[in-house]
Amino acid sequence: MKQIAVASGKGGTGKTSMVASFAGFAGAVLADCDVDAPNLHLILKPEVVEKIPYRGMEVAEIDSDTCIECGACERACRFNAIENFRVIGEKCEGCGVCPLVCPVDAIEMKKRVTGHVYTAHTRFGEFVYGLLGAGEEASGKLVTVARKKAVEIAERVGAPLIIIDAPAGIGCPVIASIGNTDLLVMVVEPTMAAVHDMERLLEVAAHFKVNTVAIINKYDINEDVTKRIEDFCTARGIEIVGKIPFSKKFTEAMVRGMSIAEYDASLAEMMKNIWERIEEYVNASDESHNSV
Ligand code: SF4
Ligand code: SF4
User: Fold this and answer.
1) Could you tell me if 51 and 115 are in contact, meaning their C-beta atoms sit under 8 angstroms apart?
2) pLDDT tier at 289 (50, 70, 90 boundaries)?
3) Contact 31, 153 (CB under 8 A)
4) Is it the case that residue 162 has pLDDT exceeding 80?
């Protein structure tokens, strides 16, 4: 089984619409790993099959029957998460200090649900997405759980490929999305920060020894910067598998809940060509990644 991560240094590059388009050609399991703000489901309109609770952080819990109301825990908590011998769940950082100071062992650390992983059917095939609760952390771990679920489903249905829609930017969830994949597809726009964004993504890819290709979206909004991106990629041996002109149709398609390939015939042709080149890259890799 092969795995492809599609990532961009910043949001709004058209990445999700591209992932949905590739899905229409690929026969893959899709995984939306942008667990802080997933949006692939807006296009895929999934029929949810399973909602799996994700237990992330630990939170303190006071057993009021055992508590002797000495106040030691409240004084020890530097997050002010204990008031009147009760833990305020949203404030608890799970540091584990209060159980240590309790003289009667009235406090236990318990895992709490901080997000969910959903599995679903879509018109393009099986789909997995993670959603972290508002303000929750540890999104990298939730990405790993979502990816493991995608591998499990791909094995069950016999899908040869997983396409991962990685979060924008760089950080734990992006690293967790790219690690142990066969190919990183970087989607960039010709903005001043583009080269810097690519450098950061390439550092992650290099760390995991993941091959990389690039797509330049809206290449015609600044052809000077596009040239700089092309030079940057050439110098590093990164193939640009597609250059897509600016088109309002990306937004129009998104609003209608369609991929760009479903919405516009000429862009569909372009996306198909890009996908075929990506497929060649993935098939050229001998390795198989049945794990995360
Ligand atoms: S676990 Fe840490 S943050 Fe949570 S209530 Fe106890 S001392 Fe405060
Ligand atoms: S330290 Fe233990 S006994 Fe004291 S107030 Fe906190 S929970 Fe109650």
Assistant:
1) no
2) low
3) no
4) yes
- Strand, helix or coil for residue 30: strand
What predicted TM-score, i.e. pTM, was given to this entire model? 0.85
Ligand 2 surroundings by CB, under 6 angstroms: 62, 67-73, 85, 101-102, 104, 106-107
- Domains of the chain plus CATH, in order, are 2-45+123-284 (3.40.50.300), 57-113 (3.30.70.20)
On whether the CB atoms of residues 69 and 48 are closer than 8 A, the answer is: no
Interval 43-92: pLDDT, tens: 889 999 999 999 888 899 999 999 999 999 999 999 999 999 999 988 99
Best of 78, 87, 95 to mutate for ligand 1, by most ligand atoms within 8 A of CB? 95
> Is 97's C-beta closer than 6 angstroms to any atom of ligand 1?
yes
Cβ of residue 72 lying under 6 Å from some atom of ligand 1: no
Q: Which residues pair with 125 in a beta bridge?
A: 122
